[in-house]
């Protein structure tokens, strides 16, 4: 009989067990706990949407839309895309589900996203993100609150050391348009020296040239005008209120006047939390204000701001895996008391204790196996003088008393 070949995992995906799975779970659990402290409601949106949701919001000419999206035609002939990011789907839901009635709406979610790009450290084709948004709030306080939320999340994960909040303003619409015109004029004067990618972006998306890593662009970008010269009084005041909020909360930040968002619907605040601990992929959390996005999807004029963070990248920054330790393990050293042990195990779990049982293999080796499981307390269950017997091993007398009270009824 021919050997059956096992299908290989798709490049850019990962299976998780043990250390990475523990890191992943710890990031998600911490996010869920912190988002509740800030009053963010948990939402879910579909993993796939009509392609127009992303092509309209991200822009037909962006790399994500033109090169990286997983798009296919379903059996009904509709063009469908696996979500490459969260914000567009959340914006679509805000319109179609009538969530405007709850504005300002603070929402958070997490889950898988999909982009066809070259896999590298901390970057996958199926990856996972945390996401937080405030929709319907035009005030700079919303921007500050999201940044304070993100800062606390990183601190509670224990990874804030060596991570820096970099901040910029893109101004209001008038500021941005004035700056855009100045950038086009500057880059036009050096067009022949720009890289091919930057020449293509010159009129389509000139702000993206400021992101270029191509050495041919670096000197030209260094001399490009900053937005500060083009900020209106209102835009300047908005940015000051954001930074005042950060100061009041004790959140440190640095200015990065080259930090941009290329799409036209981005306004005012743009930010990234960056680190040098992940090699080239230095951003661990980023976002900004996108006051024009919901309009591009056919909704009303709606201010909004949000951020996203890669779960895998955050997990890589953790010092150690945060595995969930068991409170109790019961080693069944005589099969005659298996039923009693199962009854006792159930009582422990119903009392809110994380518990497991070792009841297979050689009875003589079960206790040693249980001892290797890292539980806080070990219980051996056997037979003595013809009767069920319990031995609870803990250095804490209160723990022994508590477990004896829970387990004893099952071993009478």
UniProtKB/TrEMBL annotation:
By its UniProt entry, which CDD domains does this protein fall under? HisRS-like_core
Reactions accelerated catalytically: tRNA(His) + L-histidine + ATP = L-histidyl-tRNA(His) + AMP + diphosphate + H(+)
Sites binding L-histidine sit at 85-87, 115, 129, 133, 261, 265-266
**Where are the membrane-spanning stretches?**
none
Q: Which GO cellular component terms, listed alphabetically, does the Swiss-Prot or TrEMBL entry include?
A: cytoplasm
BP term (GO), one: histidyl-tRNA aminoacylation
Localization: Cytoplasm
Q: Which GO terms describe its molecular function?
A: ATP binding; histidine-tRNA ligase activity
Q: Can you say what this protein is called? A: Histidine--tRNA ligase
Q: Which organism is it from?
A: Sphingobium nicotianae
């Amino acid at each position: 009989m021919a050997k059956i070949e096992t299908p290989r995992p798709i490049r850019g995906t990962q299976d998780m067990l043990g250390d990475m799975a523990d890191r992943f779970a710890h990031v998600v659990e911490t996010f869920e706990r912190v988002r509740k402290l800030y009053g963010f409601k948990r939402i879910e949106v579909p993993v796939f949407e009509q392609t127009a949701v992303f092509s309209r919001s991200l822009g037909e000419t962006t790399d994500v839309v033109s090169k990286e999206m997983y798009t296919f035609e379903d059996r009904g002939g509709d063009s469908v895309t696996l979500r490459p990011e969260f914000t567009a789907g959340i914006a679509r839901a805000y319109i179609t589900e009538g969530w405007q009635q709850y504005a300002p709406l603070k929402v958070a979610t997490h889950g898988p996203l999909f982009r066809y790009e070259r896999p590298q450290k901390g970057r996958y084709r199926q990856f996972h993100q945390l996401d937080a948004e405030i929709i319907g709030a035009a005030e700079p306080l919303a921007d500050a609150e999201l940044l304070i939320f993100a800062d606390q999340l990183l601190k509670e994960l224990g990874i804030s050391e060596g991570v820096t909040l970099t901040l910029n303003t893109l101004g209001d619409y008038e500021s941005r348009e004035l700056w855009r015109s100045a950038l086009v004029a500057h880059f036009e004067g050096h067009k022949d020296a720009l890289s091919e990618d930057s020449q293509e972006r010159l009129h389509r998306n000139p702000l993206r040239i400021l992101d270029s890593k191509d050495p041919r662009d670096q000197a030209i970008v260094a001399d490009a005008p900053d937005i500060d010269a083009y900020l209106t009084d209102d835009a300047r005041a908005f940015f000051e209120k954001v930074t005042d909020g950060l100061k009041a909360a004790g959140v440190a930040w640095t200015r990065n006047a080259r930090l941009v968002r290329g799409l036209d619907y981005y306004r005012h605040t743009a930010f990234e939390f960056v680190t040098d601990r992940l090699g080239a992929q230095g951003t661990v959390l980023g976002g900004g204000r996108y006051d024009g996005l919901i309009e591009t999807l056919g909704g009303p004029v709606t201010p909004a701001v949000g951020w996203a963070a890669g779960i895998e990248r955050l997990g890589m920054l953790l010092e150690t895996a945060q595995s969930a330790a068991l409170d109790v393990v019961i080693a069944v050293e005589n099969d005659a008391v298996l039923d009693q042990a199962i009854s006792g195990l159930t009582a422990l779990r119903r009392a809110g204790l994380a518990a497991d049982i070792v009841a297979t293999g050689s009875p003589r080796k079960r206790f040693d196996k249980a001892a290797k499981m890292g539980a806080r307390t070990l219980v051996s269950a056997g037979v003595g003088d013809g009767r069920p017997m319990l031995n609870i091993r803990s250095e804490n007398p209160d723990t022994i008393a508590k477990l004896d009270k829970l387990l004893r009824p099952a071993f009478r």
